[in-house]
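SAMPLE LOG
Freezer: B-3
Tube label: C17
Construct: single chain, 291 aa
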Amino acid sequence: MPPAGEKPLQARSGHSAATNPHRPAQATPPLWAGFRRSPLVDVLQFCLLVAGLLWLLAESAGRVGYNWQWYRIPRYLISITDAGIVAGPLLVGLKMTLAISLAGLCLALVFGLITAICRLSRSFVGRGLAVVYVETSRNTPLLIQIFFIYFVLGPAFGLERLPAAILALSLFEGAYAAEIFRAGIESVAEGQLEAARSLGLTTFATYRHIIIPQAIRTVLPPLASQAISLIKDSALVSTIAIYDLTMQAQAIIAESYLTFEIWFTVAAMYFAVTLILSLVVGILEKRLKLP
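STRUCTURE (predicted):
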């Protein structure tokens, strides 16, 4: 602040900020700056990317010399008969894949939550069993676990192909879900746990009403990634002759020799399922977002 009775510096010099010839003029944004921020630029870039990929595919297909027969693919998706529209083998396989993935995901969440609680408990036996389960499942291939449960435990406990596949998937993914749940539970402030104890809540009531509802908001994104991973890992159940999407594709290729067309179609179906799941989880994440 200038002393009382003294004019400001600009008034004393006789030049304002706009008329000072020694002060550099404010840079005017170029005309193309607004165009660069326009959504049309993003659309244009996306179109160029798609065009580049299509050109790359066309160039590769021309050099490989493969006889593409995409016109034969629709019959493996749907077929029209006198009885109406009937699902083709690929859609039948997709239904089996979704059923296995849904059952495996539900069981994996149960296994993961129980394991996380055991690992955070004061019980030495509970913590030990949880650690052994998590480390064993995470550090061995899923394919080996499927074979072990179906060929070793299956005859002993009377497990058929489908229950054995669901159990193997849920145990494998449940180990990862356990670590996700554990991180979410540990993210809840310790003061809330102490407040619940001061109110006389039991351990079950504390987890049911205070810990789990808050932890779910935190672990929802990584759980969604784990669910997507489970859907893709379900392709391994075809190794024990379960006719899921992958097994159906192998059977079609064996009789039609449409190798690339079938596998690209199967990849597109997996992509569509996982993309829909990601969108649903994104909506849930926004609704359950922490303040």
